[in-house]
Amino acid sequence: MLAAGGQYFHRPELAVYDGQKFDYHNSEPWSPGRPTIVFIGTVPFGLTVYESTEHVDVTYEWDSPIRYVRASEAPAKRRPAWAGAAPTYKEHMPSGRLAVRVYSPHGRVRWEQHWTEATAGALMHKVTTIVREVEAIVPTIVQRREEAEKASAIERERREAQYREHERQELARRRAEAHQASRQQLLAIVDNWALARRIEGFFEDAERRASSLPDAEHTAMRERLSQARALLGGIDALAHSTRGNPPTSARETRRRRAGCVTRGATERHVIDTRRSACAFRSMFIGKKRWLRGRDLNP
After folding, report:
1. Domain for residue 87, yes or no?
2. Residue 166's domain spans which residues?
3. Is residue 121 part of a domain?
């Protein structure tokens, strides 16, 4: 029977002669779309029937549909005396004898055995012997398959544990990064607030000194100090702390990286201003292109 479409059975590459190797550049010349599977009880076996080869002397016929021909079967051709005898090469050629390969289609159980007939047609007399030998190997295949499944389960558990450990370390790293970022942000707020305190002390001293000035100069100086204070900001610690982002958790940090966090009012204002500037610039460029084709001097 052919393997069903929903079932996966591994079919190893078929080497038709000893020493044949397959790699990235030299792959198997042909393979079926689905392997042929036979069952002995509940144990599946893959079945392949192919023609064996012989390593014989051949000649190369460039003007023939079959380029390599056995030297013993090559037709005699008239050749000039100076050309000498036709060169021969060693190649693997079809032998006309069939062979059977039985293998384990389980991906983790490597087992296969070949039977090749000595003369053409002798394989039919070996069918009973082949079946008995395959039946005898069934307990070994079952044991090796169970061992492979246990090893696969252990490997799967190891990979899952490794993945969980990686996720734990990644979460700890993100939490440490979020904590460090929040600490740096808080220190920056404290530094800004301390600078505002020093600036406010300067303004208080300036106002105290300006109080001794005449009324006209005193009024002008107070107005200038008020404008300078408004330009630099006050010393309200709450106002300075709300200007920055609050300390965030690892989950909020991931959401910010993914773009799932609602933007603040200041950030929205900056983005809206940039969008407006881009829209105005596009409109202005479009207007210039429109005017470029018009006659502005009637």
Report:
1. no
2. 139-260
3. no
- CB atoms closer than 10 angstroms to residue 88: 14
| CA–CA separation, 83 and 77 (whole Å) | 12
Alpha-carbon separation of residue 205 from 152, 209, 218 (angstroms) = 79, 6, 14
- In the DSSP assignment, the letter for residue 118 is S
* 246-257 residue pLDDT tens: 545 555 555 555
Within 10 angstroms of residue 49's Cβ, the number of other Cβ atoms is 10
Residue with tokens 């144990």: 43
- End-to-end CA gap in the chain: 90
Q: How buried is residue 58: exposed, middle or buried, by Cβ count under 10 Å (0-12/13-18/19+)?
A: buried
SS3 label, residue 212: coil
Q: How remote is the C-alpha of 283 from its chain's centroid? A: 43
108-123 per-position pLDDT tens digit = 899 999 999 988 888 8
What is the tally of structural domains in the chain? 1
Tokens of 22: 């397959």
Which stretches does DSSP call E strand in 220-281? none
Q: Are 92 and 16 in contact (CB under 8 A)?
A: yes
Instruction: Single out the residue of 241, 111, 231 nearest to residue 186, CA to CA.
Output: 241
